[in-house]
Amino acid sequence: MSNSSYGNGWKCNWGYHKADNHCVIIKIPENAYLNSFGNGWACQRKFKALDQRCVAVKIPANGYFFESPYGSGWKCERGYLAQNKACIPLKVPANAHIDYSGADWGCNPPYIKKLDQCERPISND
User: Fold this and answer.
1) Would you write out the chain's pLDDT as a tens digit for each of its 125 residues?
2) What is d(CA 73, CA 75) in angstroms, rounded to the nearest whole number?
3) What angle do CA 64, 68, 69 make, to 5 degrees?
4) Can you tell me the distance from the alpha carbon of 38 to that of 13, in angstroms, rounded to the nearest whole number?
C-alpha cells in the first residue's frame, strides 16, 4: 500500500519494479549493484552500462578513469589529447607552455601565437 495521492495506491518493495500489475525482482547484471533508490541497478566503478549489462571501461595509456554517464568513461592526463580511443602527446612549440586546461598550449610572454608556433612580436622601436 502507498500513501501517495496519485497512481494506483501500491508500490513495489525494495529491489523490485512494477511490471503491468505486479512486482518483478530487478535482475542485476554482473559488475553491477542495486541503486540507492532500490528500483534499478548501476554499474560498479570502472564499468559502463551498455545494452543491459556492465562492460569494463578501456583506459588507454596516459589516460585515467572519469566517472560520467556520457562519453568514453576516461580522460587523458595533462599534456595529452584524446584521439581515436588513445591519448596522444600535445605538441607544444618552442617558447610555449601547456595551458591551464592541460589540453592546449599558450605562448610565453612576449611571444604571440601564429598558426602552430609562437613568434616574437615585431617591435616599432
Assistant:
1) 455 556 667 889 999 988 888 999 999 999 999 999 998 999 999 999 989 999 999 999 999 999 887 888 999 999 999 999 999 999 999 999 999 999 999 999 999 999 999 999 887 66
2) 7
3) 140
4) 8
Alpha helical stretches, state H, the chain: none
CB-count exposure of residue 50 (10 Å: 0-12, 13-18, 19+): exposed
How long, in residues, is the chain?
125
How many contiguous H segments (helices) and E segments (strands) does the chain have?
A: 0, 14
Q: What is the pTM of this model?
A: 0.68
66 touches 73 (CB < 8 A)? yes
